[in-house]
Amino acid sequence: VIHHHGFWTSVFATTGRIVGMYNIASSLFFEEQSVSTEDDEHSAVDGDYLTAALGSGTVVLVKNHGAVVVGESLAVATIKALMLEKAAHYHIEAERIGGTELGENETRRLKEAFHQYFLPEMWAAHMRRVRRSDPELFAEVSAAAPF
Hints:
By secondary structure, the protein is of the alpha+beta class. 46% of the residues lie in helices and 10% in strands. The chain has four helices and four strands; from the N terminus they run βαβαββαα. It has a four-stranded mixed β-sheet, with helices on both faces. Helix 1 (7-13) packs across helix 3. The longest helix has 30 residues, at 104-133. The radius of gyration is 17 Å and the shape is globular.
């Protein structure tokens, strides 16, 4: 579970809507998003309220706050949180110029491909990048570490 306040995600969360399918990266979140808003009885960030809002999805946009992203592993949740930030940015910019969303069939096809190919490879790609850019970060980690 990752709770984050990425700039674009937080800006978009002010709308109280889910992120639209304006870019192929957005397909990761197709039919997996919900919104949590504050009302007279609940705080938008109350744990039980967030859990109920999440349901079987993987993303809860918390109005005027940020987002909660869940995944079957830390790696998947992290990549999804990073991609949600990009998807929110794409949505804001595309909507500003009158862009249109992907069609449902294309979005479903892309979602399947992203889950099959993109998610498993992105964690490894980011870890390779960090190892190159900051090798001393891993100086204390044994060679047997899973990442």
